[in-house]
Specification:
about 120 residues, six-stranded mixed β-sheet, four-stranded antiparallel β-sheet
Length: about 120
């Protein structure tokens, strides 16, 4: 069973940056494509960014393309999300999980709040 712990969120002004981390424990995630997802108040959880198991291929939602960068360190069993040029619309709880139909149990996420 994989446990996912997301950290790095916080309160930032529009235009600022944050780096999120997702540390996995229980088993290796190095064989899995991973992704970041977010859920804003009153909205459904949505895809933000994905990365294949080697880290050589990435995919982004149109809303974050060019501003966010997903990466991974398989030796540390960790996935990252570098977020630049943050906007108030990026305010949400951010989660990581497998980028697949079948996913691990969700972690608690990390809150990102962007003030205008």
């Amino acid at each position: 069973q994989v446990q996912l712990v997301e950290t790095g969120g916080g309160l930032v002004q529009a235009g600022g940056s944050l780096r999120l981390s997702c540390a996995a424990s229980g088993r290796t995630i190095s064989n899995y494509a991973m992704g970041w997802f977010r859920q804003a108040p009153g909205k459904e959880r949505e895809f933000v960014a994905g990365i294949n198991w080697t880290g050589g291929s990435t995919l982004y939602a149109d809303s974050v393309q060019g501003r966010f960068t997903i990466s991974r360190d398989n030796a540390k069993n960790t996935v990252y999300l570098q977020m630049n040029s943050l906007k108030p619309d990026d305010t949400a709880v951010y989660y990581c999980n497998r980028y697949a139909t079948i996913q691990f149990s969700w972690g608690r996420g990390t809150q990102v709040t962007v003030s205008s």
